[in-house]
Specification:
Length: 424
């Protein structure tokens, strides 16, 4: 018989299982290639890059060298691979210098050599090497506007690839004629290799025209240098069939679906039926919350698509169009919008986190919502709708002491959401 757990404990157990399933120490070793006859150069970028590099070191049978760049606070000690920490999501000089060093390290290799590229979420901002004619400040200015606009990660990375000297397949092109093996932890909807870390080692299907269209869609006026580069479209990223990819392979070692599957197993063991709504859900966080709230109510009231007790699981990457002055990432925004939609409905508990441990730029991974959250907030003089209008999900849950703080998890498969629906 399943052992009873409190709703909060069960939600946390599902989160722990999801993170464990995507731990680089577990995910990376079984996909390592055979050592080459020549040199092995390990390079990488992302919030999981340092722990991925450590996993390579711990299981690599021969000599290796290299450099990876990760977010500040997400480092792991390595003996042979240099780890650099840099800024995310707005790039800084440390990321620019690391990206330049990575690009130099793969040049001048031979056909006997191997470049092992470790890609994970956040890699695009961390590999901040501007294309000729563009400055880091130019890229920073556009990045800030994109992050406030509500643009999807695919749209943001389309711009990044066309402002970069290393993304969008350009790293693979620089590494020729060496073999290039990419091991990736996906943080993007549909696990698109061209979007994960902006695809430095894979063909880029997007164009300069696509990049210009993103700016037009969100009414963003870029710095003059970027506008000139996008208009000239003189140096397109390498596409499918380019010789740059003749000796390049790409393997996913951890994905959002793996995290959801692991959480579902915990739910089943506890006697709770899991429903995975999707691993690639996008859209405004508050709109996604409305849909999730409707499904939760249908489960509880009608027993559809299955009866309670049940848990709704989903992943992907929502967006937030910032209109207020509050503090909070997309998961706090999702939960606050869910709280407003449910308005204290009994028997519905929820958790939403960013699996890297950082919800946006705050110090929390996400938050926990209980049936009493709205009532407790109002008793303290806080109106949830007002905070939602101000994009202040962080403030709402901080006031209830219901923020979830994991610290850097050293992995990243994007958002993890779980809504536990008990019997009415």
């Amino acid at each position: 018989m399943p052992q009873p757990r409190s709703p909060e404990a069960l939600l946390r157990a599902m989160l722990d299982a999801a993170l464990a399933a995507c731990d680089p120490a577990r995910a990376v070793p079984r996909f390592l290639p055979s050592p080459p006859r020549g040199r092995t150069i390990v390079v990488g970028a992302g919030k999981a890059a340092a722990k991925m590099a450590r996993a390579v070191e711990d299981h690599w049978p021969g000599p290796l060298e290299g450099l990876v760049v990760t977010r500040y606070g997400h480092g792991t000690p390595c003996a042979r691979i240099r780890v650099v920490e840099a800024s995310h999501p707005v790039p800084d000089r440390a990321g620019e210098d690391a990206a330049a060093a990575i690009l130099r390290s793969v040049q001048g290799l031979t056909a006997d050599d191997l470049v092992l590229f470790l890609a994970s979420g956040g890699g695009s901002a961390l590999l901040a090497l501007p294309a000729p004619g563009i400055t880091l400040d130019d890229k920073r200015a556009v990045t800030r506007e994109l992050l406030r606009s509500g643009a999807t990660i695919g749209e943001i990375n389309t711009l990044r690839k066309h402002m970069s000297a290393i993304k969008g397949g350009r790293l693979a092109a620089a590494a020729r004629p060496a073999a290039v093996v990419t091991l990736a932890i996906s943080d993007v909807p549909n696990d698109d290799p061209a979007v994960i870390a902006s695809g430095p080692t894979v063909p880029d299907p997007s164009t300069y025209g696509d990049a210009r269209a993103v700016l037009e869609k969100y009414a963003i006026v870029p710095p003059d240098a970027i506008a000139r580069r996008l208009a000239a479209a003189a140096d397109e990223t390498p596409k499918e069939g380019d010789p740059a990819f003749a000796r390049a392979t790409f393997t996913l070692v951890a994905t959002p679906q793996m995290a959801l599957d692991a959480a579902a197993e915990v739910a089943r063991a506890a006697g709770v039926a899991p429903v995975i709504l999707g691993d690639s859900i996008e859209g405004e966080a508050r709109d996604v919350a409305l849909v999730h709230a409707g499904i939760a109510r249908q489960v509880q009231r009608r027993g559809q698509p299955l009866p309670a007790p049940a848990v709704l699981l989903s992943g992907g990457e929502t967006t937030v169009t910032v209109r207020g002055k509050g503090r909070g990432g997309r998961n706090a925004e999702f939960l606050l919008a869910l709280a407003v939609a449910l308005d204290g409905a009994p028997g519905i508990h929820a958790l939403a986190v960013d699996t890297d441990g950082i919800d946006g730029t705050a110090d929390n991974a996400g938050a926990l919502l209980t049936p009493s959250s709205v009532a407790r907030a109002r008793a303290a003089g806080v109106e949830p709708r007002r905070l939602l209008a101000d994009n202040d999900g962080y403030g709402f849950f901080a006031g209830l002491d219901d923020l979830i703080r994991t610290g850097p998890t050293l992995t990243n498969v994007n958002d993890f959401r779980a809504i536990l629906v008990e019997r009415a």
